[in-house]
């Protein structure tokens, strides 16, 4: 044929995977800066809730000999897990609001789906790290858990993983629900 070889499209997307990631990462960073109030508010909220937990369950040495003593530990753990998990519910609303743009750009073959999901996850890792650190640092020793540092870091890791799971869960519920009413009903249960 007489056509120039550079004139023919040979890939599905016009740029490399790395360039796709960088473009979506910079866009997600911009959206995160625009919604910074939400992230600051959620961090302040988890700080205030950890201070409340710290004062409600204030026991520098908790006994662990009876079932009633164990119930106190279970109460603190359950309250902590629920707070850390539902701190990610703001992700649901932001996901639902971004869906029309996502579907439009996906249908026009601007970006693949992974190019949206990966930057969101990468940018939420430091947020999860900080929020789980705030909760663990403020509540672990004042509640009276085991004084070993290894258990402190294991609880920090557990809360980090729970927060990451919650962010992913609420993003999934927002994408599956597609409307605020359906997504919120799914998020409540």
UniProtKB/TrEMBL annotation:
Keywords for the protein's UniProt record, in alphabetical order: Hydrolase, Membrane, Transmembrane, Transmembrane helix, Transport
GO CC, alphabetical: plasma membrane
UniProt subcellular location: Membrane
InterPro entries: ABC2_TM
Transmembrane segments: 37-58, 78-101, 113-141, 153-173
Annotated ABC-2 type transporter transmembrane domain residues: 20-188
Record GO terms (molecular function): ABC-type transporter activity; hydrolase activity
E.C. number(s) listed in UniProt: 3.6.1.3
Main location (coarse class): membrane
Membrane topology, as annotated: Multi-pass membrane protein
Enzyme's top EC category: hydrolase
Protein name: Adenosinetriphosphatase
Species of origin: Opuntia streptacantha
């Amino acid at each position: 044929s007489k056509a120039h070889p550079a004139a023919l499209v040979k890939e599905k997307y016009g740029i490399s995977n790395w360039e796709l990631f960088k473009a979506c990462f910079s866009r997600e960073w911009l959206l995160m800066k625009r919604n910074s109030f939400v992230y600051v508010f959620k961090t302040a909220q988890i700080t205030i809730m950890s201070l409340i937990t710290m004062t409600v369950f204030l026991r520098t040495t908790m006994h662990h000999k009876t079932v009633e003593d164990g119930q106190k530990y279970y109460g603190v753990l359950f309250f902590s897990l629920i707070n850390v998990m539902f701190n990610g519910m703001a992700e649901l609303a932001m996901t639902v609001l971004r869906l029309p743009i996502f579907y439009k750009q996906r249908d026009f073959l601007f970006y693949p789906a992974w190019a949206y999901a990966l930057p969101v996850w990468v940018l939420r890792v430091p947020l999860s790290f900080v929020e789980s650190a705030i909760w663990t640092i403020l509540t672990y020793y004042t509640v009276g858990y085991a004084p070993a540092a290894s258990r402190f870091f294991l609880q920090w890791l557990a809360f980090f993983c729970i927060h990451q799971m919650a962010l992913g869960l609420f993003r999934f519920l927002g994408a599956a629900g597609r409307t605020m009413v359906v997504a919120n009903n799914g998020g409540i249960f």
